[in-house]
Amino acid sequence: MLRKGITESFGAAIHALNSSQLTDGVINRSKRMMLDTLGVGLLGTRTSVFNKALTYSQLFMSDERSSVWGKSEITLPPHYAAFVNGIAVHSMDFDDTWHPATHPSGAVLPALLALAETLPSQPSGLDLLLAFNVGIEVQGRLLRFSKEAYNIPERFHPPSVVGVMGSAAASAKLLGLSPAQCSHALAVAASSAGAPLANAATQTKPLHIGNAARRGLEAAQLAQMGLEGNPAILDMNCGFGVYYKDYSPSQMSVSSSGDFKWILEDQDVAFKRIPAHLGMHWVVDAALAARAKLENTLGNFDLGQIRRVKLRVPPSKYVNCPLPATEHQARHSFQFNACSALLDNKVAVSSFSDAQINRPALKKLLSKVEVETPKDNQPSFDKMYCEVEIETHQGQSYGARCDTFYGHWRKPLSQEDLVEKFSVNASSVLCSEGVEGVIDVIGNIERVRECSVLGSYLRMTSSQHQQMYSTRRL
Question: How far apart are the first and last CA of the chain?
Answer without folding.
Answer: 74
